[in-house]
Request: fold
Amino acid sequence: MRLILIVLGFVSLVGGNLLPWMFVGSAGFVLGSYLAGAMGFDQSEWQVLTVSTAIGMVGVFLTFYVRKFMVLVAGFLAGGYISLILPAILGWKMPLGEWQAFLLVGAACLVILLLWYSLSLILVSTLAGATLILQNMTFGTISQEAIFVVLLVFGLIAQYVLMQYTPVQDKD
Reply:
């Protein structure tokens, strides 16, 4: 399961803007793994994998029909995920409760996606991808903050460069 999450994190890190359906699928997969645990399926990895894959695939399928709406939903979920997981990984203390932070950061991501679709999709997907990678990998004695900064810079540059060399598509 960790390997799948690392791969999805890397795809979101470098391809969130280029492959929005993968970003939505990744957000759905992470949501599915959380929901599977909340529903009591966390004893069997196959059950978690089945629920996660099903929710991720529904997100991917819907993205082909209502792309912008699904990216907004995934952006909200990714923002909330970042607000819950990243401070814990980096050892930061949060002044807000978990759900307040989830709703606040998720809503902020939703708003910036509405205002500046492509550039904010790059930012949100890079942050989500870096967070997924940090959550599921260990890097030995290297500090988590340093790895986060390296992943963040790498993802932002990679997505910006890929955006420059891809043909312009309809963003709806």
